[in-house]
Amino acid sequence: MSQRYFEHPSLTAAYAKFRPEPPASLVSHILEYLHQGYDGPLEAAADVGCGSGQSTHVLAPHFNTVTGLDISPAQITEAVKLGKTSSVSFRVSGAESLPFPDNSLQLVMAGQACHWFDMPKFLKEVDRVLVPGGVVALYCYLLPRVVDPHLGERLSAMISEVYDDLLAGCWGEGVKDVNDCYRDPKFTIPYPDSSRDDSHSLMTESSVAELTLSMTAWSGFNTYRERNGEAAAQKLLDDFQKKVMTTLGVSTPPENTRLQLDTHFLLLMGRKPRI
């Protein structure tokens, strides 16, 4: 059964604000792969575990209809707030019982989500709803790394320290699968035509203040806050921000101190055989 980690209102709002969209190169690669084995019109796609809907909307220009699904009603509420496109709709649904007829979708995608699914049940449903030649695409992304020729490694290590050390014991089991880039056999797509691609990354710019606030979108941070209280959670953020600013040694405030960030993505794809 899909697991629920993103239902607290403060977490869903932060998740909507800070969850990255998939890079354009990743979306293009998925579409190219789909067109290589399917020459019909792109009628319908589903984004399973859509969260606040960023990855759902990027599919909209390419399909007649796109449906974002998430087990969390709070996440679906945030997804609807993100923007309205006539071809995009959102529904509350788990990943193990997809609300689509047999052989009805050209693409099933799950971004930073399938590590919470019951994978055997999900993949069985994927096979049911995909048309012959249709594609399943699963992606995840790792912690952002700071791009700086002199301080990048030190600053990136500070992000990892919060994630790995200060929030140790606060993460759900699925996070281990993300850290391992979906190498566990349960993520193997059971189609002869399948691929693993780790060539995509997303370059973004963020202020130190925004980078700090982005941690509030982590499920591990939310668990830490629930266990230790608001004051302890705020101190964790304040200490991180102060450490980053001290390392940078600049006089600008955190809100105006910019960093270049590189987020690495991993993409798994598979094509349902033609009958």
Could you characterize what this model shows?
The chain has 275 residues and is α/β, with parallel strands linked by helices. The protein is 39% helix and 24% strand. Strands 1, 2, 3, 4, 5, 6, 7 and 8 form an 8-stranded mixed beta sheet that branches. Helix 8 (208-214) packs antiparallel against helix 10 (230-248).
DSSP strand tally: 8
Poorly predicted spans: 1-12
**Mind summarizing the main beta sheet?**
8 strands, mixed
Order of helices and strands: HHEHEHEEHEEHHEHHHE
Name the overall outline: elongated
- Count, helices: 10
Radius of gyration: 19 Å
What is the average of the pLDDT values? Answer: 92
Features:
275 residues; alpha/beta; 39% helix; elongated
At a glance:
This protein has 10 helices and 8 strands. It is α/β, with parallel strands linked by helices and 275 residues long.
SSE layout and pairings?
Layout: H1 9-18, H2 24-37, E1 44-48, H3 54-59, E2 65-70, H4 73-82, E3 88-92, E4 105-111, H5 119-129, E5 130-141, E6 145-146, H6 152-166, H7 174-179, E7 193-207, H8 208-214, H9 219-228, H10 230-248, E8 258-271
Parallel strand pairs: 1-2, 1-4, 2-3, 4-5
Antiparallel strand pairs: 5-8, 6-8, 7-8
